[in-house]
Amino acid sequence: MSQSRNGIWATLAVVLIAAGVIVVVALRPDRSASTAPPGSAAGPGAASVASAELTFTRLGKPSRTQVRDAAGRVLAVFTDKARTVRVAGPERTFTEPRFTKSSVTTDAWIRLAPTPWKAGEEKAAWFRPWLDKAVGDDSPDALAIAMDYLDDAPARKDAEGRQFAGDASFGPLSAADPDGRAENSDFYDYLGVEWDFPDGKHERPAKDHFRSLDCSGFIRMVYGYRMKYPLRGTNTKGAGLPRRAYAMAGFGPGALLIPNTGRAARDYGVLQEGDLVFFNHGANAGPSIEHSGIYLGVDDAGHHRFFSSRVKADGPTFGDFGGESLLDGPGYWSGRFLSARRV
Questions:
Q1: Cα–Cα distance between 250 and 236 in angstroms, integer?
Q2: Residue 319 in contact with residue 325, Cβ under 8 Å?
Q3: pLDDT of 36 over the 50 cut
Q4: What is the pTM of this model?
Q5: Cα–Cα distance, 8 to 13 (Å, whole number)
Q6: Best exposed site among 251, 326, 333, 341 by fewest CB in 10 Å?
């Protein structure tokens, strides 16, 4: 959307309804630099910023670079050691009516830069063309992709006829698992394809895990298979996201935002949409990490809400069936929230 000569803005509202999963995208009039809230900016559909004068501000905790345009609007935030970038764009409202009455409205569009950020990286040859494209990009980002696997999300297939999106189960029923459904459902199980990983691991999909994603498999589907972030086949240190939640949290790539002290984390101010969040999910609360999710943002009640794939909802959700999907408050998951990382 662009501003006309007489100063009147057009408003575009797109509502996507898929059997209980709703995303509303609205392009709103821009605000002046004096009234724009932090993070507001022209976004997908806006004019190119290629000729605009940019301002770069270094911030701490975590170390990052904030990019503003000539009008003072925040365009993007790049975090040291991480590839995920918060690009400001049109506000979207995410809802999941079947499992929660809450909604999350955000102007964040989470993209992947081609390389981890470091101070001064704005001088690199890739930076300006990448930013110019990202500011005008309305293709699915990490948050929209995560919505592709919620309850009753519509099936989508690639050119070869393989389904790559649509309602995902957590895993097959299992009497041996204390939660009632088996884990070990990675992205290749959902797809039903064999996979060779750069660290030498070869995997074959389990037939009874077809169309299933456990908690870390969901993250690997969103960031790995769909967004092309490197993946590891093992739980070892090295380039790419490892397989299990404890490995992602402990020695995964990116910037560690909240270290695991064994106590419930409460430093919500460091979080940014798209961050990975990690939880204890053992018989007793403690320092071990057994569960993972993706931070969605602050909901309409002021709570910090996250996506994760869980047994009782039988797949990815940011709803409250079987426990509120909140990092704060008195609920189960808030008491088990231990760590966060930005990849």
A1: 10
A2: yes
A3: no
A4: 0.87
A5: 16
A6: 251
